[in-house]
Amino acid sequence: MESSEKTAWLSILTNLLLVAIKTAVAFISGSVAVVADAIHSLSDVLSSSIILIGIKISARPARGFPYGLYKVENLVAMVTSVLIFFAGYEIIKAVFLGHGRALPTRIPLAAGGIGATIVISWLFSRYELKKGKETGSPSLIADARHIWTDMLSSAVILMALLGSAIGFAVDRYAAVIVVLFIARSALRIFLDSIRVLLDASLDYNSLARIREIVLADSRVANINTLWARNAGRYIFVELDLTLRVTDLEEGHRLSEEIENRVKMEIGQVDRVLIHFQPQPREILIVGIPLADDRLTISAHFGEAPLFRLLRLQSTEGTIIEDVVLKNPCLHEEKAKGIKVAQWLLKKGMNMLISNHDQVGKGPGFVLGNAGVEMLLTKETDAAKALTTLLNVPENNLHQGVAQIKKED
Length: 408
Prior knowledge:
Low-confidence stretches: 399-403
Order of helices and strands: HHHHHHHEEHEEEEHEHEHHE
CATH architecture of the largest domain: Up-down Bundle
Shape: rod-shaped
CATH topology of the largest domain: Alpha-lytic protease prodomain-like
Oligomer: single chain
Structural class: alpha/beta
CATH class of the largest domain: Mainly Alpha
CATH superfamily of the largest domain: Cation efflux protein transmembrane domain
Largest sheet: 6 strands, mixed
Number of domains: 3
Distance between the termini: 75 Å
Strand content: 15-25%
Mean pLDDT: 79
Radius of gyration: 37 Å
């Protein structure tokens, strides 16, 4: 049995204990007010039973409710708020409309019994409120506040008993103050329940914490939208992100990492739904291995004599810089391809056009880990490959070719 169910059972037992004590006090003292309070506590047993049923229902999976029955707890909390309002009405009715009541007898004994119920109610309401906050259960929190209002009701009765013993009727004045507290508590529970039932957004502090967790990852470029709502004790989060990734697989891995972080840092998160899109690169630095003629794509990577590097505006395809560089690793004896890849990365290359796939090879690992996009082409002419793959206008490309300069 989970913690919330145990607490709900304890609430039922506590209310039964209060009923027993108040019934005994009513029998001993003959106080009509205490009889009314005992009946009130008996109704609280029913209220606590409804809360237990609500907790059990909310935990059950239902095919017709793909998001779960968690909001049953909020519905129960709203019903509890109405019962709290009714408790305030009963106090006003008993104090201001109870004309001609017989004076109670054995007042010291009756006062001691009511005092015991006040202590029990106060202690259990604090305990249940703590458990409700720990589990995030809105129905337990509402029930804790309900029992707290019962404690205030008993306090009014205690004042009435003490007042009658010394000849002063102070219960009416105390009742007004008590009912104000009750109304405030009930209204708060009611409004909180309505907010959740109408899918209002999560509180500002929780939203800010989720935003902080997501943006802590340097691979997240931007949070486009963030939605989060409560359903019972659970939280549902939706994110629309722009990620610094180059492929869908990498984006899915990062989304799973973010989801796990949010669930670890924020309690009671049931689901995190993430939509993402790669961050568009404004500047592309494209590398192409060239043969000695400086126009044909080389059949090799590590042994390519030349590399053409173009700096392009990705949106317009405008060439900002176009140079041909000698391969500085051409005469290396070992790990030639890996060293070439590292050299190109230092030049800022983020896209490679080649006739041969580098995946599973040393250069492929180096370039892939750095997020370099690798495009394969059957074209052997470098200019045609750029036009076909990147939609670079031919006139811009020819202007770029005219500006090619050999860098030693």
